[in-house]
């Protein structure tokens, strides 16, 4: 089956990765339309020898399109994704617009691929920190039954798109030249700094990012009442997120079984040999499809506790890769 | 009372801060000897208009010295500190050599100043992450009775001394010039990176830094059985540590009472107004004596839970300031 595919938000950091992944993974597309806002219409995007001319995304863009990969803001997505779905196009959406909608499956193909079957035209791709954290949490849940978790994140600037990466780069260069470079994208300088502030604050003192991580983890693992808490922090790292997790399980845990569960899980790479300074780091996992899981240890402060550290590329498993994997499931089901 | 004071390890990053703080806080010293290894003997250290000639630290250096502030490696400290104590000199030691020795008080003056009385010549200054985390944990413990905590750290390179700060600076400059700068101080690059590896690994999979934080917190708060767990992470920040804490308390918590407890605690600055993007960050708290505490929120995943974020200068409250505060207690008791 050859499918016609569109990318909405093709000019962004995730959009660029989508184009690359569709090619590299030999996604069976018959045509590839790249769409963006009217502002970018007419501009060119190059991938290897190919040139794509950006078209403005309108409802009619989705006529006769099979699958649309959305990586746009929540506002434009809320308007256009239903228009695409109405036209029979399956939307895989990277925004937060529909993730918690009970009619929209939220899918990580290594965890709940079966949820793809239930779509009504829109399938949501999870928040980046969530998808990456789950590459450690989900296999351990399968092994021991997750009871509660505490997660603290170390999130790369790519989570704020090209603007975030540019801001870190500009501030670092300015510092090297002894110049000043005040923040524009972020509320505070990010070079040589960090802040516990990703996305907007809610009345309960948590950020929207923190809510996403907790609620989306519960939805993806079908554990609506899972007690969980997190602090999400932006750090001066380019494109891989790290997450320190301390988790409690229903059943007794063992290091050996934990390592086996991680090693057997297709989305994870066991990266855990402290005697040789082996544990995942953001630089190592930038550009990698798999997420690294290491520093696995018995956490005796918790009941059946395990502590571990997960690192994954924010633009790949945290966004574009997971979206393409969902699209691959859609194709498999229609085959 | 005027006291003769010595600094052991005067050439290090902490040593420099000790000299500055003794002057700025008008510490009542009659003389100030600066000591270091034989390698540095004869070199000069300048503070404003004064010049100090470094002497080699030997057992005899401590004859007729009242207080010695040690900021040297554990090996040299294990030899020289007892020699100093034998000569009647009170040692305030910043290394980990004696911290868990039951005969040595481990003191944070805002928390357990009374422990200074029990010294037998040596008083230990806590690990940097511990002292900073406690600026949030201790007042909340006093308010609600701490039951358990999970802490994840974001630790600055100053924790590795001048060498760590230099390595981050060199790697950032090299990156800006498109050059390579392989790691020397750390096992991995630190620019644009981070790693869950501070100090050596133990057989249980935790690092020595993680053990320090847990064991020292228990000793300082006199809670030997406190369940607690931590992941310690080095980040590309110069000199302030951040710690995300999720804690459980014996008594019901309230946001208002938590904020009051923090605001009333002399070592902390309440820095918690998310509506205006106010929360502590490392750049803001570099060079500050107080530690910032913010992002305080009810943590419903834990029993009587609170989550919060603490930031403090690693060289000040994390090392030199706390040591000078201990020395001030010693002087007060002898007055």
UniProtKB/TrEMBL annotation, chains A, B:
Binding site for NADP(+): 11-14, 39-40, 158-159, 314
An example Gene Ontology biological process: isoleucine biosynthetic process
EC number in record: 1.2.1.11
Keywords noted in UniProt: Amino-acid biosynthesis, Diaminopimelate biosynthesis, Lysine biosynthesis, Methionine biosynthesis, NADP, Oxidoreductase, Threonine biosynthesis
Domain Semialdehyde dehydrogenase NAD-binding positions: 4-119
Binding site for phosphate: 99
Pathway where this protein functions: Amino-acid biosynthesis; L-lysine biosynthesis via DAP pathway; (S)-tetrahydrodipicolinate from L-aspartate: step 2/4; Amino-acid biosynthesis; L-methionine biosynthesis via de novo pathway; L-homoserine from L-aspartate: step 2/3; Amino-acid biosynthesis; L-threonine biosynthesis; L-threonine from L-aspartate: step 2/5
Active-site residues annotated for this sequence: 128 (acyl-thioester intermediate), 241 (proton acceptor)
Recorded GO MF terms: aspartate-semialdehyde dehydrogenase activity; NAD binding; NADP binding; protein dimerization activity
Binding sites annotated in the UniProt record for substrate: 155, 234
Catalytic activity, as annotated: L-aspartate 4-semialdehyde + phosphate + NADP(+) = 4-phospho-L-aspartate + NADPH + H(+)
Similarity comment: Belongs to the aspartate-semialdehyde dehydrogenase family.
Subunit structure: Homodimer.
Physiological role: Catalyzes the NADPH-dependent formation of L-aspartate-semialdehyde (L-ASA) by the reductive dephosphorylation of L-aspartyl-4-phosphate.
UniProt-recorded name of the protein: Aspartate-semialdehyde dehydrogenase
